[in-house]
Write a structure and sequence with these properties.
Structural class: alpha+beta
CATH superfamily of the largest domain: Conserved hypothetical protein from pyrococcus furiosus pfu- 392566-001, ParB domain
Largest sheet: 4 strands, mixed
CATH architecture of the largest domain: Alpha-Beta Complex
CATH class of the largest domain: Alpha Beta
Helix content: 25-40%
Number of domains: 3
Radius of gyration: 36 Å
Strand content: 15-25%
Distance between the termini: 77 Å
Order of helices and strands: EHEEHEHHHHHEEEE
Length: 208
């Protein structure tokens, strides 16, 4: 494989390309080149028309780089050039990320500055599981001063086993005492009010 150094000004972008390169991708190409340098050659034909590496070429050009490593393929027919452009892009897209392996690699890094990834997003992905759980649990809860205010209020009577509702309030029937009504039923013979407790955090009733 004969890789040579060529001036970017000598290379030509094809009239038609099978892949579009959005601005975000070009930015990530630039991050990668700044961090690692050029890691793969741009492939051109005998006329120095780019067959593979248009995105990399645009990134290098935008960075003001004057030269690039280039692989010249002067042995391809026009049919083969088109097939190569299609195949290179399609075969690459058939790959699937191994998320478990990526996570393992990221955990071993000293920082999260990785081209192709948002640094803050990686930090969130790698956040300690307990911390994430705690944040989710706490989301939407009352502030501490609000909780103290609720706890300082007189709490509603809490029904104990054997309690039954009465007009004007709730009373408890002492254990073992037989009244005119059956335990837990109203005067009409219907089931009495269900037992509950008061949540110390929000002051809401929790039905038992």
């Amino acid at each position: 494989m004969n890789i040579v150094t060529m001036k970017l000004s000598e290379l030509h972008v094809p009239e038609r390309n099978v892949r579009k390169h959005p601005e975000q991708q070009i930015k990530e190409f630039m991050r990668s080149v700044k961090m690692f340098g050029q890691t793969r050659p741009i492939v051109v034909d005998e006329n120095k028309v780019i067959l593979i590496g248009n995105g990399l070429y645009k990134a290098l050009e935008k960075m003001g780089v004057e030269t690039a490593e280039v692989l010249v393929r002067d042995d391809l027919s026009e049919q083969e050039k088109k097939k190569l452009m299609i195949a290179d892009n399609k075969i690459y897209s058939l790959g699937v990320d191994d998320l478990d392996a990526i996570n393992d690699f990221i955990k071993e890094l000293l920082d999260y500055d990785v081209p192709g990834f948002d640094e803050e997003l990686l930090e969130m992905m790698m956040a300690d599981a307990d911390e994430v759980t705690e944040r989710i649990t706490e989301y939407g809860l009352l502030e501490e001063d609000e909780v103290r205010d609720i706890q300082s209020r007189p709490q509603s009577p809490q029904i104990q086993p054997g309690a039954r509702p009465e007009a004007g309030g709730i009373t408890n029937t002492p254990e073992g005492e037989e009244g005119s009504q059956s335990q837990g039923t109203s005067q009409e013979g219907q089931p009495g009010e269900q037992a509950y407790v008061i949540c110390p955090k929000c002051g809401e009733k929790i039905w038992l």
